[in-house]
Amino acid sequence: MNTSRQPTTLWDRSRQAVVAEIVDTALALFAEHGYEAVTVAQIAKQAGVSQRSLFRYFGTKEDLVCGDQDGLGRLLVSTVEAQPAELSPWDALLAGFAAISSANHTPEQVLEITTLIFDNPPLRSRYYEKRLKWQAALVPVVEARMGIEPGPVPDPRAMGIIATVFACVDAASELWVRQGGKADPFALYEDMLAAVRG
After folding, report:
1. Does residue 97 share a domain with residue 34?
2. Which of 2, 3, 103, 189 could form a disulfide with 172 if both were Cys (CB 3.0 to 4.6 A apart)?
């Protein structure tokens, strides 16, 4: 799914509708039968598309849940870059996460998807793999915000801020899931970050 802009052509809108239908079908099947028990063939059949068509939209079964992580990563980076220069790296990163939290799904869908990710090791592994790429892409953005000249290796201060924010976001997300979505995940994040920063 394109997370950086609204679709402008009929083809874009048609593609987005097909993707949404496939994801909704997959999530319903996962909820009914469990993630591991559902096959790509079942999802394709239920969604009314061929397996070949499904794989044009999603490279793997895990991508049906984790979504377009590359697109979300680009949105995260561009949002952090677009924040006012006076905003701290901590707050700029939070603004980025706020932008991607509602980019593709309703809060109810986000809770359902995040629960699936944390409850299934293959999904969780793919989720963290993509997020490591996000962190690497954010290093020069955070370095620039901190006034650090880019060098041959990433600056440890920028890396430390990014790693801390990601750890707190992930911990807050998991606690939010374990509480059944009743808490405010951003309030949980802010409490965790405040504790880390002393």
Report:
1. no
2. 189
